[in-house]
Design a protein that fits this description.
By secondary structure, the chain is an alpha/beta fold. The chain has 15 helices and 22 strands. It has 2 domains: 278 residues, Aldehyde Dehydrogenase, Chain A, domain 1, CATH 3.40.605; 190 residues, 3-Layer(aba) Sandwich (Aldehyde Dehydrogenase, Chain A, domain 2).
Length: 489
């Protein structure tokens, strides 16, 4: 039985610095449950002084603990023990389901295993990738030495708190760095529990620290701290631009940015079974209530199969039912809060003002109290410049557009701002390869929509969707700096 009483979950308090919980004198903010809007905790922003303490502790911990210099296999063993504890801990799943938009069944069946496996993947990277030797003249030796940066700042979003933390912490720690992580102030608790488990697994105290707070106060202090040598952020494009600017002005720090998306699902008339297609497209824009940067929210379908496909999609949308995240049977997620709900409302209203037609949905579910459960929404009659096509909505809203030939479809799949992901649905291999080459996106899925559990495949966007890669060996190598050495004998 996975269901639990939300009033009986024990919350880890405050920030987590040097292996200890601590409070702050920063501004207080309320933390609400997405499923019912109830305030279930109050926290304080980590002030610049708190952030300075966390970063300084991390910097000193690297010097005194020997984490950077210990054998890579030993770092890997600690990370593997950490992954085991994550899978075994029941409180972690409840904290994630309580405070985020992730239903408890999804957390237990998918989020926890995914998080643990990501950390195991990077545990294996610890001794697999290092430097290189170069051919020089006989009397010299050229080398490339891979070193950890030192303290890495990680800032994670509210939509997938645990897995995003594993994407940041796994490669950084495996490469020998320390991490100061700021989770979203909307979902602050599960990553603190994750850090507690890391200490239990044998990670030296201070090598992983958690600071709570807003982006404007805590996040800014973290990014601009002089002892932070690299920044890794997942979140909105607007915030990513600010972080990139701040990092450039405070130490010229490298950044990894996974940002927003407005991803197309391009469906050709030779894509196969319409039922399979409809189910795949539905998951692509309704998973986690549509709150995913990779959500496939633009359906671009060849005209001669558009009507039956959209009709089936509408039927499937009507079958989805809301449910609080702490009930085992719940499958459909709420929006994170009222602010996000108001954003979804405003974009749909603007889309309708420019001619969009609501085929299904378009409003909150009734009888869900203060929880922001939004009906899956299909919008038709949308031009390329319609706000619902141009803006990242971060909700379960799918625009529907039709095309006649391949060239037109590929032109409609392009986006001026975003280039994170795309889905191409066709049983023609030549057509799939042409589309893959033509679409300007960091990830292209063909006859599927969504990531697999293969952590070797990196993810990251083009254009306003970011810079650098998460996952894959690329993420591990991005947590190391390269030093060239030339030795004369």
């Amino acid at each position: 039985m996975l269901s639990f009483d939300p009033e009986k979950v024990s919350l880890p308090a405050g920030h987590y610095i040097g292996g200890q919980h601590c409070q702050s004198q920063g501004a207080a903010f309320e933390v609400k449950r997405p499923s019912d809007g109830s305030v279930y905790a109050t926290l304080q922003d980590a002030t610049p002084q708190d952030v300075d303490r966390a970063v300084t502790v991390a910097h000193q911990a690297l010097k005194t603990s020997g984490w950077s210099g210990c054998p890579p296999r030993e770092r890997g063993r600690v990370l593997r023990r950490w992954a085991d504890l994550i899978e075994q801990d029941t409180l972690l799943a409840q904290l994630e389901a309580l405070g985020s938009t992730r239903p408890i069944s999804d957390v237990v069946l998918h989020e926890i295993p995914f998080t643990a496996e990501a950390i195991r993947f990077y545990a294996e990277c610890a001794d697999k990738f290092s430097g290189d030797l170069f051919p020089t003249r006989d009397s010299s030796l050229g080398m490339l030495i891979a070193e950890p940066y030192g303290v890495i700042a990680a800032i994670t979003p509210w939509n997938f708190p645990l897995s995003m933390a594993s994407w940041k912490c796994g490669p950084a720690l495996a490469a020998g760095n320390a991490v100061v992580l700021k989770p979203s102030e909307l979902t602050p608790f599960s990553t603190v529990r994750m850090a507690e488990l890391a200490i239990q697994a044998g990670l030296p105290a201070g090598v992983l620290n958690i600071v709570q707070g807003s982006g404007a106060v805590t996040g800014s202090a973290l990014v601009t701290h002089p002892l932070v040598r690299k920044v890794s952020f997942t979140g909105s494009t607007v915030t990513g631009k600010r972080i990139m600017s701040d990092a450039a002005q405070h130490g010229m720090k490298p950044v990894t940015l996974e940002l927003g998306g407005k991803s197309p699902q391009l469906v050709f008339d030779d894509a196969g079974d319409l039922e399979v297609l409809a189910q795949r497209i539905l998951r692509g824009f309704t998973a986690n209530g549509g709150q995913a940067c990779v959500a496939g929210t633009r359906l671009i379908v060849q005209r001669n199969i558009a009507d039956p496909l959209v009709e089936r999609l509408a039927q499937l949308c009507r079958e989805l039912k809301p449910g609080v995240t702490w009930q085992e049977e719940s499958r459909y997620a709420p929006l994170i809060d009222e602010r996000q709900g108001n954003k979804v409302c405003s974009v749909i209203a603007a889309a309708k003002a420019q001619g969009a037609e609501v085929l299904v949905g378009g409003e909150r579910f009734a009888h869900t109290g203060d929880g922001w459960f939004w009906q899956p929404t299909l919008l038709s009659h949308v031009a390329q410049d319609n706000p619902a096509v141009q803006q990242e909505i971060f909700g379960p809203v799918l625009t529907v557009q039709t095309f006649d030939d391949e060239e037109q479809g590929l032109a409609m799949a392009a986006h001026d701002t975003y280039g994170l992901c795309a889905g191409v649905h066709t049983l023609s291999l030549p057509r799939a390869m042409r589309a893959m080459r033509a679409i300007d996106a960091g990830t292209v899925w063909i006859n599927r929509y969504g990531r697999s559990g293969d952590f070797i495949i990196p993810t990251g966007g083009f254009l306003g969707s970011g810079i650098g890669k998460d996952l894959g060996r690329q993420a591990f190598q991005a947590c190391q700096r390269q030093k060239s050495v030339l030795i004369d004998f």
